[in-house]
Amino acid sequence: MQVATVDRYNLRARPVRDLQLAAVVEVHNTEEGRRAIDAGATIIGVNNRNLRTLQVDLDASRAVAALLPKGVIGISESGLKTPADLRSMKSLGYQAFLMGERFMIEPDPGAALAGLMASLQTPLPAHRRLGGGGTAIKICGITRREDALLAAELGASYIGFVLWPQSPRAASLADVRAIVPALPPGVIPVGVFVDPTADDIMAAAEAGIRVAQVSSDAVELSLGGALPVIRAVHLEGEGIAPDVADELVLLDARDPVKRGGTGKTVDWNRAATIARSRRVILAGGLTPLNVREAIDTVRPYAVDVASGVEASPGIKNHDLLRAFIATVRGTSSTRGTVRT
Question: What is the DSSP letter of 272?
Answer without folding.
Answer: H
